[in-house]
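This section describes the prediction task in plain terms. A model, or a person checking by hand, is given the sequence of a single protein chain and must write out its three-dimensional structure as a string of tokens. No templates, partner chains or ligands are provided. The sample shown here is typical of the held-out split.
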Amino acid sequence: MRTKIVIEVLERWLKVSIGHKVAVEPLANTEPGSISTAINSILKHSGGSKDLDVSVVLSRNKIMVRRVDLPSQDSKEIEQMLGLYLVRQIPYHKEEVVWAYQNLGFDGISNSHLILAVALKNVFKNIVSSFVPINVLPESIFMSSQGLVHYVEDVAKNKISLPASYMILDIDANYSDLVLVHNQKLGSSVVIPQGAQQLNDPLEKERFTAELKQALVALNNEIPDARCDKLFLTGAASLQLASIEAILAKGFNLKAQYLSSKEYDNFTASGPKDISLSAILGFSTPAAKDDLKFVLPELQIQKEMKLKLQQLMILGVGLIYILIMLAGISLVRLVQRQSYAGDLKKRVVALGKDAKELDDITSKLKIARQYADPKSSVLTYLNGLNRLCPDNIVITNYNWELGKSFTMRGYAQTIPDILAFTNTLGSSETFKGVQNRYTRRRRLKDKEIIDFEIFLK
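The expected answer:
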């Protein structure tokens, strides 16, 4: 099973959630080397597995958030419209930013309500580069505000009933995030530049009060239908509970309630109290399918390359295994054949001694067959010639081999005598099919004779 890890990087701290356990590591700076060292240190102390499901949470103070209404329900058309919106409304070139959105739903009349989040690519550069030395690639990049919504839902489960609309104020080390939740979805979010560290200064605390009041008014006006009567405090907000309740009592119909999980309480009992872990704990649970996610082309390419490499490795291992199996099978068959051939040779040698006498007998039988077989015996042919050969035909020699042709040569006075002799032989059962191969004239003493050759297949 994969180990789920959620990481968030602040200017001075690295926050990590492994499962539901949290850890914080101080950072000298936000350079990739410093972040990699901190991540590696936390993974070693926690005994992290090699099979990691890593998610990165981008802090809200590094993101611009806009609520956008577009007259369309088609996702492709909405993305095209958002591209034009970015060009006109965001003070950066489109190539310099990475953006993501969440569709909050259609109003039933003409518009789709969207949350648009925009961040500079430079913000992601150091964070993503820090994972290269430890050979880990983030699976997802989320916005911290959405993690706060999941955190409140998880803490409130089976304890308190959440209203349809409410607000969340999360105070982190160097900034605060005021979130409006409407119909169980992130409705909007406003950054307050003061965090737990700044609130120790009375002047900064006054500025925080003014900023909080303005943010509350802005969120109330952004979604008129969202009538909130509850403000949940998370993170380091517990240190400011009394002052926040005093602000809400003057002009705001909101009741404040601090929410904390068991994991968060265990951490603050011995760790820093001015750091918020709410966002990373919120994403420790499975994220919703429609959560706002940033997609980096460089990260996507690296993931695809890693996946292709894994597939090639699996294919290579499979091919090697198949080749080894085939080689093993071939080797076994070769050994079996050699063993069988060896056995046959031994049997041949053993039987050869017993078969020698049989070979002698067989040879003798072959010789005897030449004389014993009435159809193919040489005696049969000689007997036939003795009966059928006339006086005017002289046979000088004959040639015969068992199973082969029978050939005779001789001479006569005339060619008709030879032809008559050939016909006489062909009429007999023994010499059926006999043929005259050639005839040739020559002189013998004072006479002229004709040589001939007759053969039988």
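For orientation: The longest helix spans residues 297-372.
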